[in-house]
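Researcher: Here's a chain I'd like modeled. Treat it as a single chain, no partners, no ligands.
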Amino acid sequence: MLALSVESDQRETIIVKAISMRARIVHAAIAASVWIVSTLQGVGQETAGRQLAILDRGALIREQTYFDNRDWDWFVENIPFLDCPDKEIQTTYYYRWELMTKHLTYGNPDTGYLFTEFIDRPFWSGAYGAISCPAGHQLYEARWLRQGRIAKDYSRYWLKTPGAQPRNYSTWLADSVLAVDAVHPDAVHVAGLLDGLIANDQGWRKRHYDAEVGLFWQTGHDDGMEFNIASRQTQDILRGAPSYRPSFNAYMWADAKAIAKIAARQGRTDLEQEYEAFAQRLRETMVAKLWDPKRKFFFPMYKNNENRDGYEISAGTLVYEQGRFAGDSHGRELIGYVPWQFQMFEPDSPYEVAWAKLMDRDGFFAEFGPSTVERNDPMFLLQKSCCWWSGQSWPYATTQTLKALANVLQRSKSPSKSPSVTSEDYVKMLGIYAKSHRKDGKPYLAEALHPDTGSFEGHDGYNHSEHYFHSGFCDLVITGLVGVQPSDNDQILLHPLAPSTWDYLALDGLVLRGREVSILWDRTGDRYQRGKGLLVFVDGKQVAHSPDLRPIRIDLAANAVAPEKTAEKTAGETTEKTTEKSIAEVHSKVNHLVNNDGAYYPRVQASSTRSGTSIAKLQDGNYWYMQNPPNRWESGSSEPVTIQIDLGTPRPIETLNLLFLDDSIATQGHGSQGEASEAEVRVPAKMKLECYSQGRWESIDPGFADSASAGGLEGHRPTKIAIGSRSVERIRIELEPQPSRRIGLTEIEAWGTSIAPYPIAPGPAGNLVYRPSGKEYPKASASHSDRFGGTPEKSNDGKTVFDPNPMNRWTSYESSQASDWLEFDLGEPRTFGRLELAIYDDRGGVQAPESFAIEVWSDGKWVAVEDETHLPLKPAGSQWNTARFTKVTSSKFRIVFRHKLPAKSGVSEVMLWEG
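Model: Modeled as a single isolated chain. Structure tokens:
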């Protein structure tokens, strides 16, 4: 039975409570365990999520023929499914989930998961490639994955991981933590982040809060908006114009409110009151100083006196109040809408007059907009180079604007009295945003686009901007179009902005606060065969119905069974927490093979490697299957190849995942494949797997004989092999290619249990050139070192990093010589006969040398070692190279590199052994 009560407010909200209903509850624990099963244990099991499915999830995901990642089961188990009549929106919705997987990165066993912004890891990114600027968008997006581990890991990354750099760019971190918690509640997780969130807030205040003004200042560059109309009126058009910006102050207001809420949950009343009071003052000051009643909009206010081309601007003035365009009626930027992204004002506030410019063609509206600056602004400028925020359409800002617009519409108590924007406008702008995710008619996203043509030209850098993750989309569909409004309790509001003229709309498999929710709009009842109108299902049971597409409240708690309680020991004492039991199990599973920190172990080696690919890519925690840009290792020929993995110490391995490339899989996406018939890289014909355990090698039956067998080797998805919960120290994989083909992989994962913190395997003893921290010897020097930080001492610090970031290498870049040397003073005579070089190769200005030779200091001069042999025979970049020679005793040695001109040489690490 359902007890329905109708609340007669102006929105005709129907309040629905499901009572006295006996139902089998699917908790978040099930949803959480689903992911780890699909990733670690092999997919194909009938999970609770599949049993409750209303839509044919497998069929919907396989319709996305452009997907590079063909791990269909992962998507079925991990994302909520959408069915709607606007196929542009639907296609983009699924594309955005696939895009997310390209940026999903496993940092290390202690950090867990994070996201990159760019497809590469640029030098300005933090540990493992993350950048704080889009972190808020990424967390809002990732919270809708059916289990919370990824979003929670990423939240924790910013506060717990060394090198994360949370304040390099503006972001709304504390607000995002609560946004994740509203979907996947975990009181212990949030409480554990509170001190870090406070420290982050105080760090911002120390550096950017102006107590005299009562506002935070920020540059457009560090607000993620490089060349902007404020900075272009100063001497420094890129990093100039520090200003009190409505965007950054809104972020800091949202974070203050979030910290106050978390403090209240912890009973820290003084802290709650402090942050609530600060947030109130900040909002009042922002309105008083950044709102222009004449232009009816929020504007940045200059912090300093500025001048350019003879035009003066005084500190404390808004954009266009002074300077070359003093008195101009424009100057509006999309950042003026950011306060509504965080619901800073009461519903139907007088400031909503600002929204009249959104759909105005003389304002922000464009066919591929909105534009970041209104069309008739005197500084409106479109450029074919990055990164201009003077008119280009930026998905980052579009996400903020649509989020803000949805808040205006869904919170209004008198929508008929606010004609500036309507729900029809939201759907129109969402549709424009959806079709903006296209290149040559196919799903794609780069940094920014032309607001009139949709071209990414100038904002689509190779191996950098492809499938750019600097924005959100799925969250806009779920919370805006479908209208799911999560909160900090089990009261959820559904306020769809979808048009009532649509015949159907469905969101299926949404995990919200431990329950599986499905929402259907079926005008005739024929499409889903569940009845007419708007229907809501919780854990497979219908709990609400309305004949109209209108706001509905659902009380999830009325249909709840309390989550299972588990005891957790922390710092010597036992505390009881209410959480999902499988969450602890999920977190105990780690990838033992990832190596982003440059440690000696775990180590992967291959018997051959194709030039331009890297064995290090197999353990960087990140995967995609595209040919361009590459994230791959390929064998050097069509001969059989052996991959050897040394974990350095016995590890409890349960599952081995091999992510094979297969360039014969033709996709419709960009930068993916060549002609299928010409593809040189295919899945292997056969595979043999052995594990070294308890002092002996054991053969592992992968369950299939060759790639033609049912369930055999496939490309573009993980091949999952159950190891059988054994203690493994080394793994050997022998791969036989198809005739005249080569073999390739994008990642190998070895999953099993562990304790925290993760115990690091020590490097092997006997490396004569390793220099422990603080020691004078061994001492490194070079004939030339680059000016970007590639110094000799980084070549014997015990860390090996083949990627550009983090920088851990010596290079001779920009040397004027045809050869250069890298020398080591051991401090005393030592005997040695083997050298290992981790040769750095960025495939540009630094490449593997044409050759190298080893010399030792003997009787006051440098002499060549005897009987020197190399493996591989020709120096190879992005991998280890070994040199053997007749043992010699000396206190110094050097490596002489003959450069592959015009490139120069470099190494990430050097190791020296007795023999």
